[in-house]
Write a structure and sequence with these properties.
By secondary structure, the protein is α+β, with helices and mostly antiparallel strands. It has a single domain (about 5-210), classed as Jelly Rolls, CATH 2.60.120.10. Helices cover about 45% and strands about 25% of the residues. It contains eight helices and ten strands. The protein has helices spanning about 5-15, 20-25, 105-115, 115-140, 145-155, 175-180, 185-200, 200-210, and strands spanning about 25-30, 35, 45-50, 55-60, 65-70, 75, 90-95, 95-105, 160, 165-170. The chain has a four-stranded antiparallel sheet. It has a four-stranded antiparallel sheet with strand order 2-7-4-5. Strands 9-10 form a two-stranded antiparallel ribbon. The radius of gyration is 19 Å and the shape is elongated. Residues about 210-213 have low confidence and may be disordered. It comes from Marivirga lumbricoides. This is Cyclic nucleotide-binding domain-containing protein.
């Protein structure tokens, strides 16, 4: 199965699904700063991010938001109802966003019944696991400056939001976002950036040589 597999394109081209697309799939737009959903909401939709960037997180005991993933075009998210009521995340738009909404019953059925979709879905989930595990490993094993470099390496590229505006993903992050994604604090991130400013040229050279797993 190619990494270039596009679910919606596949459904459009398949005679098996053509007549169901308008009934089971729709589009929705959100503005930068909007929440797509919060933990208290009951969801029966699988979301596909078509354009823009979304952050995913939950809340600490004191009610503060904690970010643990960043989603880019092509990512799938939402409550698939496999967690026995323990789904407690929010999603918030870092840019203007275009989403594709799949009826959850339809989505889960095609993942089970269609071999090509099942193979794509399994590969996608494994890549998401690997991404999360790699970030966790980096958090527990690397210095804060290395963690920031790796995050920079992962997200330092440009995409288009729902309005066609070009945005650099890393530039969208607040210090709090970077702290959450690197398992550190805002103070540690601020100190790391001061170190970066003090040796910009050598840091750029180091960033260029960092290899992502």
């Amino acid at each position: 199965m190619s990494n270039n597999f596009l679910l919606y394109n596949y459904l459009q081209k398949s005679p098996r699904y053509k007549g169901k697309i308008s009934e089971r799939i729709s589009s929705l737009f959100f503005k930068k700063g909007d929440y797509i959903y919060k933990p208290s909401e009951e969801l029966y939709t699988a979301y596909e991010l078509v354009k823009g960037v979304v952050k995913v997180g939950s809340y600490s005991k004191d009610g503060n938001e904690c970010v643990y993933d960043i989603l880019k075009p092509g990512d799938i998210f939402g409550n698939l109802h496999y967690l026995d009521g323990n789904f407690q995340e929010f999603t918030k738009c870092l840019t203007d966003v275009e989403l594709r909404l799949y009826d959850l019953v339809f989505y889960k059925r095609i993942v089970i019944q269609d071999y090509n979709i099942a193979e794509w879905f399994n590969q996608y989930i494994v890549r998401r696991w690997c991404r999360a595990e790699t970030r966790f490993f980096t958090t527990i094993s690397e210095d804060i400056l290395i963690r920031i470099k790796r995050l920079y390496k992962e997200f330092n590229y440009t995409i288009k939001d729902a309005n066609g505006k070009e945005v650099n993903i890393f530039a969208l992050f607040s210090q709090k976002d970077i702290a959450d994604l690197t398992g550190s604090t805002r103070q540690s991130v601020a100190q790391a950036f001061r170190r970066i400013e003090n040796k910009q040229e050598s840091l750029k050279m180091e960033m260029d040589t960092v290899k992502m797993p």
